[in-house]
Amino acid sequence: MATEPILQALFEHALDAILLADDEMHWVEANPAACTLLGYSREELLRLTVLNLTLDHDRNLTQEIWRAFISDGRQKGEYTLLRRDETTIAVEYRAVANIVPGLHLAILHDITERRQAENALRESEARYRSLVEASPDGIALGDLQAKVTMVNQQAVRLFGYDRAEEMIGKPGFGLVVPEDWSQAIRDFQQIFETGSIRSVAYNLLRKDGTRFLAEVSIALVKDAAGQPQALTAIFRDITEREQFQEEVRRHTARLETLAQISQAVAEAGLDVQAVLESIVRHTAEAIGDACVISLLSKDEQWLEPVAFHHRKPEAKALMGPLYLASAASTHSEWVATIRETGQPLLIPLLHQEQIERLIQTEYLPYLEQVGVASLLIAPLRGEGRVMGTLGLSRDQPSHPYTQDDQVLLQALADRAALTIEKAQLFEQVQGANERLQGLSRRLLDIQETERRHIARELHDEVGQVLTGLKLLLDMIVRLPAEVVKSHLNEAQQLVNELMEGVDELSLNLRPAMLDDLGLLPTLLSHFERYTQQTQIQVTFQQTGLTGWRFSSSVETTVFRLIQEGLTNVARHAGVSEVTVRLWVGLDTLGLEIEDRGIGFDPTPLADSPGLSGMNERVALLDGHLRIDSTPGKGTIITVQLPLLEETERSAVDDDDLFG
Predict the structure, then answer these.
(1) pLDDT over threshold 90, residue 94
(2) CA dist 484 to 59, 496, 502, Å?
(3) Which residue of 67, 236, 239, 595 is most buried, as measured by CB atoms within 10 A?
(4) What is the pLDDT of residues 124-146, one digit of tens each?
(5) Can you tell me the distance from the alpha carbon of 319 to that of 310, in angstroms, rounded to the nearest whole number?
(6) Which helix (H) or strand (E) holds 213?
(7) How many angstroms from the chain centroid is the CA of residue 641?
(8) Which among 283, 261, 461 is positioned nearest to 378, based on CA atoms?
């Protein structure tokens, strides 16, 4: 049988590309499948070499492969070729050298789709691995006997291992604490019945033997036929979550207690003592056993108990009177510590040494009959300072106070401090209303006094001059013309006196210069008049006032304070010189009036009209007034006024004031 036609038919109709090349790498024959694969016609291919189908960067490698191929006689492998349209194609090739001398056979099989599928699979596996490794949860694979076959790095970290290899081959049940094994076995059986379990909580073991609480989900991996092949497990550490939930439960319980006590305190109203009694009663009942509220004395030297309660009536009867009659020095160890730090004091179990150091000797009868085993004291914090304490003591050591009790008591103390401040403020407001009524009555008295003074001035000064002027004018109209001129001069003198009297009266009421030119020019004018009237020299020192205007309320207050202070110096000090100082700070205006006169004891005169009026003026501007005076050594009045409103540049020039 002739084989040449058969071989020719196989060559022509083969599905794989078949090419022949000579020793110089020129293509000398190609079948139709090769032309289709590479995108060339037969004639085009036969004008090319092996290198023409090779990517530029692969040509040196191709030549090395060709030389090795010629030397070995046979070769197979995979290669990437360049098609006519400059696209690439992956091929699996088999080559035989010298099938006849000088001719070499190459058979190419297109594996582009297979290569793409393999690349896609690798990419998929890489993405899967990335997802597994990026997961915040621990992930493990296991066989059907629950032995670990693969873990991600988060699982390695969760269980405290250094490398994944340390966990491979470990039995899954060995990761569960022994007391949870029975539950784990039941869940394992359920997995094979249902295919999975989800969100089961186990206590798991780390490499070092410590435990952590984890939420675990396990599922079966099945093949295409639905047969179980492996297990997947996902671990999530929920220790912090459980701790948070427990904290939420504790916080909710504290809030409920706070709400109950707040309601009870609200029902006590604004009576300070009733509020204090309600706080200690409900705090002792809620936390136990004994509760006492102590407040700082006015001189802040003592911490004075003001309310006491014990859950046991007999203990309350025994200790109540003693508690309320005793005070702790603010220099004692525990009081000083709480005041300095503003933090609670917790002693879960009191030892004898601590009892001797912290408990006052007056309380020994209580210790002997009732006992104190645990101590918890929280500061009452208000307006940036410690105003007192809310203290608890527990009789028996079986149930000491805890950090939770400390948090709750401090919350109660903060609520109590606000309530106490509110009740005290209410009392202060009541007192202020009473003082306001007194001030209103005083204001009416002062107004009437001023009216009488103005009426007297008008009658005695202006009225008499006007009466004299009227009589003179009546006389002038009856006189001969030649003598009228001399009497007109007398009338003019009376008019001048009248104008001076009205000016003086106006200045005493309110100098117009204060509104027109401001504080500094008005003061300079007032000092000059004051010296003329009293022969007392005013030494005036100022810093920062020149050329500035202040708010009307500040200027009026400062002027009246100086006016009143200088009047008091003229009346009582017995001096020939007084010093007035004014200065402007960043946000305050300072004033000082100093004399070296006879001085006085300011305590009994605190409510005198003059000093009280000065205090009221300063208080209206939220300022501070201080009077230092000693009999025989003189007096210093110091005032600080806040500059709440912006100042502005005055139109008055310095030269206008000082020449």
Answers:
(1) yes
(2) 141, 19, 27
(3) 595
(4) 666 766 667 777 888 888 888 88
(5) 9
(6) strand 211-222
(7) 32
(8) 283
Residues 540/564, Cβ–Cβ less than 8 Å: no
Q: How distant is the alpha carbon of residue 219 from its chain centre? A: 46
Q: Please give the average per-residue pLDDT across 283-292, as a whole number.
A: 84
pLDDT grade for 436, boundaries at 50, 70 and 90: low
Residue 144 DSSP one-character state: T
Q: How far apart are CA 437 and CA 430, in angstroms?
A: 11
Q: Is 525 left (phi over 0), alpha (psi -120 to 50) or beta?
A: alpha
DSSP H or E run through 638 = strand 634-642
What's phi and psi for 402, nearest 5 deg? -120, 175
Residue pointed to by tokens 């500059």: 643
Cα separation of 367 and 361, whole Å?
10
Helix, strand, coil fractions of the chain, as percent rounded to 5:
50, 25, 25
Q: In angstroms, rounded to a whole number, what is the distance separating the alpha carbons of residues 325 and 387? A: 19
Close Cβ partners of 602 (under 8 Å, ≥ 6 residues apart)? 611, 627, 628, 629
Length of the chain: 659
Three-state secondary structure call for residue 428? helix
Average pLDDT, stretch 216-229? 85
Instruction: Show the 3-state SS of 39-57.
Output: CCCHHHHCCCEHHHHECHH
What number is the average pLDDT over the span 406-424? 82
Nearest to 640 by CA among 617, 615, 623: 623
Angle 237-238-243 from CA coordinates, rounded to 5°: 135
**In which region does residue 589 sit, left (phi positive, over 0), alpha (psi from -120 to 50) or beta (all else)?**
beta
CA distance 199 to 127: 26
Mean pLDDT of the chain: 81
CA distance 505 to 117: 111
What is the Cα–Cα distance from 174 to 230, expressed in whole angstroms? 18
pLDDT exceeds cutoff 70 at 459: no
pLDDT of 195 over the 70 cut: yes
